[in-house]
Amino acid sequence: MKLYEVVIKPESRFGTPLKGDTMFGHFIWQLVLNENLLAVPLSDLLERYVEEPFIVFSSAFPKIYMNRQDYFFLKRPELPLSFFQGSIINKDTVEVIKERKKQKKKKFIQVRSDLKINCEAKNLVSEKEIFAMYKEVLGDDFLEFCPNTLEISCFQVHNKINRLTSSTGEGFAPYNQIDSFYLPGLELSLFVLFDESVLDIDELLTILEKIGLMGFGRDASSGLGRFTLGEEQELELPDFSDCQALYTLSPCVPIEELEKIYFQPFVRFGRHGSFLATSSNPFKNPVLMVEEGAVLIPKELPDKPFVGTALTKLSKVEENTVGQGYSIVLPLYFNSMET
């Protein structure tokens, strides 16, 4: 399999977070609507997918190019903050607590293109610090008027319409939904692991371009979720020979034997797209998953750069529905084994 990083440039507001399992759903719908995109029949790919994935998408993460080096800002690993402090022996308790409070505000961890995650305090960064880096690199005057965040949420007012009467009906019923705007000029990295015998990078980029044109996630028909593609680059597959844990890049359902796991639970309340969105039951069965940023300590180090399983039996209207329960994993190293 090959691992690529594809740059996504948001061009509109988004109604759905750019998570790997949702991107997989959009990818599959493109294959359903255009069977000529790949030479291999989709039915054969999905039959294999339960045992061996032919493609795995990560969630999207901010990136920046500084000092002739790519930096990716991944979600801070779901570990106790003590893992980032090393040994606290002979340290003043008050100072330890103060340091931990500072680290708590830093929601991202900085990773270079070797994709090795080191749990050290110096690698933790806050959203404000990332914004400052973008401001230094872009140098645009309009960033002076932006808040020190990478993403701004706002309420979009909607109203329920009776399609038979073309009116709101009795009882004026507006409601709000939250949309997100990304910082102008922000680039997001999407990591894609795929089987080169099934598709090549050009075919993958063609499909991603179509998704960007049609829109990603909720309210795509209203103009949300638009993006264009930037540069792509092939990355070396992660080396797990000397790592101490695994870091997940997207929501997943791990089935591997684990010594320990640190994670945040995530419930996916899925919904069908395309013509199944107007079916008798457009909603999928909910799935309890592990959020991206989880730390897995396996009994045996993996020989493949992914963990998890395929999600089946998701739909009551389409029995062949499959979801991505896989995640690309990266090697993670603890600051000190004393922690």
UniProtKB/TrEMBL annotation:
GO biological process: defense response to virus
GO terms, molecular function: RNA binding
Keywords, in A-Z order: Antiviral defense, RNA-binding
Sequence similarity: Belongs to the CRISPR-associated Csm4 family.
The name this protein goes by in its record: CRISPR system Cms protein Csm4
Organism: Desulfonauticus submarinus
